[in-house]
Amino acid sequence: MNSTFMFINQTAILITRIQSDVSTRTTATTTTTTRAQYNATFFAQKTYPTGSGSNPAPVFVVDVNLDNKPDIIVGNYGDGKIGVFLNFDNGTFNSQTSYLSGIGSNTNPNSLSVTDVNSDNKPDIIVANQGADNIGVLFNNGSGSFLPSTTYSTGSSSSLACLSVVDIDNDGKSDIIVANYGTNNVGILINVGNGTFRSQTSYSTGTNSNPQGVVGVFLNYGNGTFHPQTTYSTGSGSKPYSVFVTDVNNDNNPDIVVANSGTNNVGVLLNYGNGTFRSQLTYSTGSSSSPYSVFVTDINKDNEPDIIVANYGTNKVGILINAGNGIFLPQNTYSTGSHPFSLSVADLNSDSKPDIIVANLNDNNVGVFLAR
């Protein structure tokens, strides 16, 4: 598989395959539209403290202690720590165990991923330390506890904003891709084995690219090197903050969904099938909502991927149900804590219903919305 990466405003990055390897396509299609029925509802959030002044920003959900129960991992921007909440099995969680994200207390972790980078079948934590201009890697001991962080520089004043982890050179080892907000580039750190990484190779996103209202797409040559970026507008003043890539209209081509914090909407860019994208369609998230994070999954079990968004400005989670063919209904909202910065979706209590997890930046806690 040839992975492609995309960035937005140097604040978010995601890697996926967006271009089909098949040279022929069927051009005649039959479209059936059915009316979506919203049947997913949630209990009010239950919160778990992350500590005074912690300001939790990124959140990730995965089973870190190999007990088949998804756990919560959060990056505490304010105190430079990674918090791990182990799952009791019923969607409730132990108090957090904390680990330094890097060296010192001003590392400001603002993005993370959890995946196995040293091929021991245990998920490790990879974190973007914006305040320290480096990436921290915390290896999993196997019981859901982690070794001290090993760090890799992303360059002076890089002010890295977001990272993702995937095998981009097809060698079976997970590599790191990071959006360097301060230096206007994307950095790639190739995994050389056992979870150690080469110095980054960077790809320019353009002078002063960080304030632009665009999505940038870099197509992979197939060996872990990339074509120059192609950009797609998300609108003047849109300030896109988060991106998710998945097929939303059931044509087997991954589409782009973006949270436009400046224009208070979610943008959907449908894939033509050759790695290029249509102009975005937008869906309102409400006045002054400032959506910061977006996640796409089938929330109401109708086999259509829906959009879940963290509305930072209005302290709400919004759910936009897919009505079919990549068209979305107006959002339903649930109240969060103060300034929800990021979110994730997973079945936390083994009832086969997706639950919502949100990092409440100003309330210093993680909120869990269990599905009814």
UniProtKB/TrEMBL annotation:
InterPro entries: FG-GAP (IPR013517), Integrin_alpha_N (IPR028994). It comes from the Eukaryota. Signal peptide: none annotated. Keywords: Signal. Gene3D superfamilies: 2.30.30.100. This is VCBS repeat-containing protein. It comes from Adineta steineri.
